[in-house]
């Protein structure tokens, strides 16, 4: 395990769920402390360990205009100490307890998670409660983490071929309103402008027990761990519930297109995004299935059509909420995204022609019964994998509860997926996967920058 | 003289990094009593044809992880075909005598999995993680691939084009450039020098070469099947016998094991120019212990203290104190016949020299001064805990077992590891640190803007030469 860090958007493609087999459903309970902290507990005695995740109801989508990247910068500040637990103590206590920890800023939540042998349970609950109470608010540490975050942006975006353009640039072109257009890394101007007062205000507004879900999974008795959580967290005061602004988008009326050049890449790439229906809708589940039918593995439609048959692509990745945690975990406008790397010898038109033909075929005939069964099975299997180990089950439980007030969906996704029919897919594709609903970015190597050192052609 | 002056300047530059110990908060609850980690019980079997089968039946989570590992990775590739093992790995699942590429992908998807195949240095691994209820299907497809891969001409031609395109794509990736250069720097012209095919080797490879490489490398007496997850051992083994019992060994001699290089790499800076880079990717590497060496666990503990965790000296210094980088880290990379200790940091161009200085300082601090008792206990607990956390995942258990087998170790090692970590003493740390950590042992690869790197690193008095 590397120390991949207070990392950010894990861009791994988490895919999802199928079939008629009986549901796997680990025992799980939900409670709420008087101060509003929601607690989800799942016992798992398969190892003498536990995993926990606290998700706060704030992500990069709701960070203030002029402060892009702030939710993520703030996430880093959560590790920079409190009045009683100075900078450095957190990692030391976690590691001395045999544990690991990390955090991640998503569009719609910020999550902090740990896993360790159960002997460290009390210490870790205490650490999380301590930083839910107050922080050190040190300007020196803010400056330090600003530097660290800017290096994170360099290593993840600015020094990378493609610069995560399907994450940074595609929503920018596809949407119209700040919450949805900007990416959570933010720009350096905004990061540089952030002050310690911003840290204070953000903390006061969003970091409170009543805006958080603590999910914990592991080798303990539920009542006992609930008592401990009460012991460490119930003295924290709730705060005024943050009001949620309207983040909805108007409708898209024509195809959007952007041409980009890339100073680092040597092979062209293409990103395509379709606007999706709201999460809490039947269509959104269909969209998730369509995303997987098109992108999930070598059996997927795009792999077979673009990579194998037409041979116009080197790789195809994507899905609904592709750059988020999963096709089911988001809370605002999202895209169904394709990220295609294609050989320099092929043209954009050739790639798009094969791409559009694959979509037209799905709209016309829908998936066969066998294909539908396969993708449901695969999505079930993938979803289960997210629930396997305590630290990752805790994450899924906390997101579901944050969005819905109940963890139910963490376990019902496979069944929801199993109900989707071939007609649902056809209908969905013909409504949503249409040109006027999409944005295309073509990104090609900046050939004038190519030097003798790495020239490829 | 140069070395002495360097060491002195390092020390002055970095004295602030030697942090005072913080007291822990008074209210922090103590750790509870430790529960021993139950290592997975591995059932070891062997088929008559020599196939080694390691099974770990567990209940609860309704999936099964499968790995088939065959001896003969990139280290076994012919000199004129570097990286052939990777082409072999990606074409294995593209058709057998019974199934086409598409059928293989679809059947595996219908079992809830994906075929993943990769050519490592010593082995090729084919793996899949499937739903328990559909494990027989997953096992059957896996068995078909590793016994009957056919390497159809059209699929090989396509795979070659794809791999060539991906290689071109990777030429832009600083991680790839750094790792490739480091492998060549450390291993010269010995078998571990190649991590990837070359444009030429991909172009020249043929389907018939792949077929003969497959025939010599995929043989039951040189292979391991690992199965971890929700199944009954008896039933599963009967299926394994059905599916793999007819697998024959060829009359060819087995792939010879890779040997370690006999010459030491040079203490120099190897430059990989990458125009338009906004960071320098620094990679320091030197030989470390083998997995079975008596000082392996001590080296792991030393690594955790030095740069292998959030709480490590390296992270505290160049991230938490100086803000030079986002995720500096060090790691031990162990092959069957060689071990490597590496340190990686991606830093903005302006602090390339300062980072080089600090990394060298932290290495020398490890090599020349004692670790504190607190550091030692923290690192040991961290590594033992990491084992417990890792063993929760059945994919991770399967991968760890496949790795032990590759290194010629028994599956029991998975349970002994924590005890060995626990038994590590300060004296052990001192001795491995002196042996592996001195900055003077390091070969350094620097990927980025050539002028930035030359300007920043020439002051250190090391030769700066083009990466091999």
Write out key terms for the chains shown.
heterodimer; A: 457 residues; alpha+beta; Cytochrome Bc1 Complex, Chain A, domain 1; 6-stranded mixed sheet; 5-stranded mixed sheet; 17 helices; globular; disordered C terminus; B: 468 residues; 2 domains; 44% helix; 17% strand; disordered N terminus
List the helices and strands and how they pair.
The complex is a heterodimer of chains A (457) and B (468).
Chain A: E1 29-32, E2 38-43, E3 49-56, H1 70-77, H2 89-96, E4 100-105, E5 110-117, H3 121-133, H4 139-158, H5 165-168, H6 170-174, H7 178-181, H8 188-193, H9 196-206, E6 212-218, H10 222-233, E7 256-262, E8 269-275, H11 282-295, H12 301-309, E9 315-320, E10 335-341, H13 348-365, H14 369-388, H15 390-404, H16 409-418, H17 422-432, E11 438-445
Parallel strand pairs in A: 2-6, 7-11
Antiparallel strand pairs in A: 1-2, 3-5, 3-6, 4-5, 8-10, 8-11, 9-10
Helix pairs in contact in A: 1-4, 3-10, 11-17, 12-13, 13-17, 14-16
Chain B: H1 2-14, E1 43-46, E2 52-57, E3 63-71, H2 84-92, H3 101-110, E4 116-119, E5 123-131, H4 135-148, H5 153-170, H6 174-187, H7 199-204, H8 207-217, E6 223-229, H9 233-244, E7 269-273, E8 279-288, H10 296-306, H11 313-321, E9 329-334, E10 339-348, H12 352-368, H13 373-390, H14 394-406, H15 413-422, H16 426-436, E11 443-448, H17 450-457, E12 464-466
Parallel strand pairs in B: 2-6, 7-11, 7-12
Antiparallel strand pairs in B: 1-2, 3-5, 3-6, 4-5, 8-10, 8-11, 9-10
Helix pairs in contact in B: 1-12, 4-9, 10-13, 10-16, 11-12, 12-16, 12-17, 13-15
């Amino acid at each position: 395990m590397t120390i991949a860090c207070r990392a950010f958007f894990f861009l791994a493609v988490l895919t999802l769920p199928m079939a008629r087999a009986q549901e796997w459903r680990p025992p799980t309970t939900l409670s709420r402390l008087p101060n509003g902290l929601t607690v989800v507990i799942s016992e798992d005695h398969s190892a003498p360990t536990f995993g926990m995740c606290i998700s706060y109801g704030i992500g990069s989508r709701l960070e203030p205009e002029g402060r892009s990247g702030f939710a993520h910068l703030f996430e880093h500040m959560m590790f920079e100490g409190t009045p009683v637990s100075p900078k450095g103590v957190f990692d030391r206590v976690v590691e001395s307890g045999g544990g690991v920890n990390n955090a991640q800023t998503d569009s719609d939540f910020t999550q902090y998670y740990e896993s360790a042998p159960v002997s460290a349970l009390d210490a870790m609950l205490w650490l999380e409660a301590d930083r839910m109470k107050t922080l050190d608010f040190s300007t020196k540490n803010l400056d330090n983490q600003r530097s660290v975050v800017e290096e994170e942006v360099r290593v993840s975006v600015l020094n990378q071929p493609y610069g995560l353009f399907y994450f940074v640039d595609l929503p920018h072109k596809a949407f119209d309103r700040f919450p949805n257009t900007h990416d959570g890394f933010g720009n350096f101007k905004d990061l540089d402008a952030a002050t310690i007062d911003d840290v204070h205000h953000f903390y006061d507004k969003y970091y409170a027990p009543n805006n958080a879900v603590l999910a914990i999974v592991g080798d303990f008795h539920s009542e006992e761990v609930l008592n401990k959580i009460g012991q460490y967290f119930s003295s924290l005061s709730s705060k005024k519930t943050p009001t949620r602004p309207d983040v909805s988008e108007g409708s898209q009326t024509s195809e959007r297109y952007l041409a980009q050049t890339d100073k680092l890449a040597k092979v062209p790439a293409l990103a395509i995004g379709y606007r999706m229906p709201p999460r809490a809708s039947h269509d959104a589940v269909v969209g998730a299935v369509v995303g997987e039918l098109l992108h999930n593995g070598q059996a997927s439609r795009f792999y077979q059509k673009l990579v194998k048959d037409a041979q116009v692509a080197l790789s195809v990745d994507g899905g609904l909420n592709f750059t988020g945690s999963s096709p089911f975990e988001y809370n605002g406008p999202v895209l169904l995204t394709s990220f295609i790397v294609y050989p320099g010898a092929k043209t954009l038109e050739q790639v798009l022609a094969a791409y559009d033909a694959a979509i037209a075929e799905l709209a016309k005939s829908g998936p066969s019964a066998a294909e539908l069964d396969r993708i449901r099975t695969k999505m079930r299997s993938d979803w289960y994998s997210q629930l396997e180990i305590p630290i990752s089950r805790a994450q899924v439980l906390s997101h579901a509860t944050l969005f819905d007030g109940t963890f139910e969906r963490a376990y019902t996704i496979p069944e929801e997926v199993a109900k989707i029919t071939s007609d649902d897919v056809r209908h969905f594709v013909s409504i949503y996967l249409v040109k006027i609903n999409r944005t295309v970015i073509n990104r090609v190597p900046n050939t004038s920058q190519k030097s003798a050192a790495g020239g490829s052609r | 003289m140069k070395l002495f002056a360097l060491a002195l300047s390092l020390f002055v530059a970095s004295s602030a990094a030697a942090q005072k110990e913080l007291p822990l908060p008074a209210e922090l609850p103590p750790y509870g009593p430790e529960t021993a980690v139950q290592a997975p019980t591995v059932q070891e079997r062997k088929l008559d044809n020599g196939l080694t089968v390691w099974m770990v039946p567990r209940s609860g989570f309704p999936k099964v992880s499968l790995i088939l590992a065959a001896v003969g990775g990139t280290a076994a590739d012919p000199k004129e075909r570097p990286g052939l093992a990777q082409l072999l790995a990606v074409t294995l699942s593209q058709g057998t005598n019974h199934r086409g590429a598409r059928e293989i992908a679809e059947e595996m998807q219908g079992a809830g999995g994906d075929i993943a195949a990769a050519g490592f240095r010593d082995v090729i691994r084919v793996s899949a993680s499937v739903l328990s209820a559909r494990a027989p299907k997953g096992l059957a497809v896996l068995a078909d691939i590793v016994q009957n891969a056919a390497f159809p001409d059209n699929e090989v031609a396509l795979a070659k084009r794809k791999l060539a395109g991906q290689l071109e794509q990777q030429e832009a990736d600083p991680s790839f450039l750094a790792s490739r250069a480091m492998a060549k720097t450390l291993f010269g012209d010995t078998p571990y020098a190649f991590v990837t095919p070359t444009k030429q080797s991909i172009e020249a490879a043929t389907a018939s070469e792949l077929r003969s490489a497959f025939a010599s490398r995929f043989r039951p007496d040189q292979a391991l099947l690992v199965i971890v997850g929700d199944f009954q051992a008896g039933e599963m083994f009967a299926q394994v016998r059905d599916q793999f019992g007819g697998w024959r060994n060829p009359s060819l001699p087995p792939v010879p094991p890779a040997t370690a290089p006999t010459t030491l790499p040079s203490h120099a800076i190897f430059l990989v120019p990458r125009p338009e880079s906004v960071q320098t990717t620094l990679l320091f590497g030197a030989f470390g212990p083998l997995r079975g060496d008596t000082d392996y666990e001590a080296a792991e503990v030393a690594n955790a203290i030095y740069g292998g965790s959030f709480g490590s000296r390296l992270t505290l210094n160049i991230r938490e104190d100086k803000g030079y980088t986002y995720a500096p880290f060090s790691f031990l990379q162990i092959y069957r016949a060689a071990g490597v200790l590496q340190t990686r940091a991606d830093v903005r161009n302006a602090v390339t020299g300062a980072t080089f200085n600090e990394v060298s300082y932290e290495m020398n601090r490890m090599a020349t001064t004692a670790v504190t008792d607190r550091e030692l206990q923290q690192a040991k607990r961290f590594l033992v805990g990491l084992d417990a956390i890792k063993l929760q995942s059945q994919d991770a258990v399967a991968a760890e077992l496949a790795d032990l087998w590759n290194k010629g170790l028994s599956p029991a090692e998975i349970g002994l590891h924590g005890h060995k970590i626990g038994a590590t003493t300060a004296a052990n740390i001192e001795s491995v640190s002196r042996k592996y950590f001195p900055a003077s042992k390091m070969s350094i690869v620097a990927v980025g803007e050539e002028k930035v790197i030359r300007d920043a690193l020439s002051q250190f008095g090391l030769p700066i030469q083009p990466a091999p």
